[in-house]
């Protein structure tokens, strides 16, 4: 069975011998530079997506060029970029001009590290991790340039210290703290509703 067949089967029939069907393909992780095996996985992802019309989410390598290269590979293999989320843009693309160049390629733009503010990014010391205020400024830039319907946001909570029980912001951080700050900084309620409700709903719906 090919990798494409495995992915299709996990969505249509169930994953790992169960009847639990996957709702998305991903998070597909890539490093930098992208390896040959990662390229094959991306190609299989695109082939499966072309068959199913399903959502895809990508974890790009820690380099500004990584999201661009992933999109090129997916496009060349027949993937649907309009149904694809590029995650972790907070720590990947920093220049406004470069961000807008990437936004024009048509994927969903995910800022998903809300609540993660640190002096040093342990996975790439060259990166100055942005603050939540800086993330909001990026959202304002994208909205102002016409990409409101392509933005999604999240917390990327994956360690215990991020939970409220262990002193973190918890899963309510965006609703409790970020949304009020977005509104305070001139982002409309309509835009907030698109980012939190309409965009995820549209991405997660199979074509």
Question: What do you see in this structure?
Answer:
The protein is α/β, with parallel strands linked by helices. It folds into two domains: 1-86, no CATH class; 100-207, TIM Barrel (Alpha-Beta Barrel), CATH 3.20.20. The chain contains seven helices and five strands. It has helices spanning 3-12, 36-52, 66-76, 96-103, 132-144, 173-184, 189-204; strands at residues 25-29, 56-59, 84-86, 108-111, 151-153. Strands 1-2-3-4-5 form a five-stranded parallel beta sheet. Helix 1 (3-12) crosses helix 2 and helix 2 packs across helix 3 (66-76). The longest helix is centred in the N-terminal third of the chain and has 17 residues, at 36-52. The protein is globular and about 50 Å long. The two termini are 25 Å apart. 32% of the residues are buried. The mean pLDDT is 96.
Look at the structure and give the mean pLDDT. 96
Top-tier CATH class of the largest domain: Alpha Beta
Largest β sheet strand count, sense and barrel closure: 5 strands, parallel
Cα gyration radius (Å): 17 Å
Identify the CATH homologous superfamily of the largest domain: Metal-dependent hydrolases
The N- and C-terminal alpha carbons lie at a distance of 25 Å
- Name the structural class: alpha/beta
- Total of helices: 7
Molecular shape? globular
């Amino acid at each position: 069975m090919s990798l494409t067949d495995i992915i299709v089967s996990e969505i249509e029939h169930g994953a790992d011998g169960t009847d639990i069907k996957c709702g998305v393909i991903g998070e597909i992780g890539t490093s930098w530079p992208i390896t040959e095996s990662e390229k094959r996985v991306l190609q299989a992802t695109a082939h499966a997506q072309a068959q199913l019309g399903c959502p895809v989410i990508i974890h790009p390598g820690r380099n500004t060029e990584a999201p661009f290269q992933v999109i090129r590979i997916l496009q060349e293999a027949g993937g649907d970029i309009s149904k694809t989320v590029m995650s972790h843009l907070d720590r990947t693309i920093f220049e406004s001009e470069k961000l807008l160049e990437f936004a024009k390629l048509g994927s969903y733009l995910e800022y998903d590290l809300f609540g993660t503010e640190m002096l040093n990014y342990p996975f790439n010391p060259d990166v100055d991790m942005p603050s939540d205020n800086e993330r909001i400024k990026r959202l304002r830039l994208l909205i102002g340039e016409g990409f409101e319907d392509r933005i999604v946001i999240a917390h990327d909570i994956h360690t215990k210290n991020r939970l409220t029980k262990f002193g973190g912001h918890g899963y309510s951080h965006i609703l409790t703290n970020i949304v009020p700050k977005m509104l305070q900084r001139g982002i409309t309620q309509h835009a907030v509703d698109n980012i939190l409700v309409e965009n995820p709903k549209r991405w997660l719906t199979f074509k």
